[in-house]
Amino acid sequence: MSEYRYLRVERLDDVLRVTIDRPAQRNPLSTEVLGELRRAFTESADDRGLRAAVVTGAGEKSFAAGGDLKEFDKLRSTDDAERLWSHANEALRAVREFPLPVVAALNGVALGGGAELAVACDFRVAARHAAIGFVQGRLNICTGFGGGADLVALVGGRRALSILVGAETMPAEKAQAIGLVDDVAADGESLDACVERFLAPMRAQAPQVLRAFKAIALGDRLMHTRAQREQREREAFVATWIHPDHWQASDRFLSRSRGSA
Asked: Is the separation of the CB atoms in 150 and 134 below 8 Å?
């Protein structure tokens, strides 16, 4: 696996774990961090033994505190802004289009671009003290990494508009109540334990089947036409149908059926 300066990238059994490792700076998303995120997910996309990926931040305070404002403050021209948007959007696209489920493990606050990274993932699981905030409006800007479209797809246009206008940092339980977070650690439960509990159904599925399910879901997320979605599902069905795992499962089922007859 490649070397990274700002990320810890590990393959733990059948899960890719990507940790933004700048806790002293609250894990900001600099251009280098964004580039490394893109590389980590692109390089692991063809690992056929994986079942899922988890993105998190180092420490307990911040998942990602948004863009690296000390760096981005120097980017003042139209061309600068265009390049930043493209670079960040390409990084989040690599997360969004990763061929397996991606879980954001919110170990602390996810703000601005950090919130956009969180919604680029398929699911969000949060520590009890975590929070998420689309606070871009406080800096008189809008979402800048492609996360606005993800937010609308996740909670609907009206609610997304309210979240963006409010620029609120929402506690994890409130975010869960509106569908922005999928699970929150129970009292006394660690985030790692909550993530493992959330991953359990994925670990029970064959890797190629998870890839098929992700392909089907991604067709909706990318707003493909009905014909495009059906073609994705057709390809996924054929690939899983002819796989030996399918026939082994079918044989077990038929053996049980014959035994109970």
From this structure: no
- Nearest in space to 39 (alpha carbons), one of 80, 84, 98: 98
Most distant pair of Cα atoms in the chain: their distance: 75
Q: Following CA atoms 177, 181, 182, 183 in sequence, which dihedral angle do they give, to the nearest 10 degrees?
A: -90
Domain ranges of the chain: 7-203, 207-260
Sign of torsion over alpha carbons 24, 28, 31, 37: positive
pLDDT (tens digit, 0 to 9) for every residue of the chain, 261 residues total? 679 999 999 999 999 999 999 999 999 999 999 999 999 999 999 999 999 999 999 999 999 987 777 777 777 788 887 888 789 899 999 999 999 999 999 999 999 999 999 999 999 999 999 999 999 998 888 888 889 999 999 999 999 999 999 999 999 999 999 999 999 999 999 999 999 999 999 999 999 999 999 999 988 776 666 667 667 667 766 667 667 766 676 677 667 766 665
Q: Which helix (H) or strand (E) holds 84?
A: helix 78-96
Cα 218 from Cα 50, distance rounded (Å): 18
Polymer length of the chain: 261
Name the CATH topology of 7-203.
2-enoyl-CoA Hydratase; Chain A, domain 1 (3.90.226)
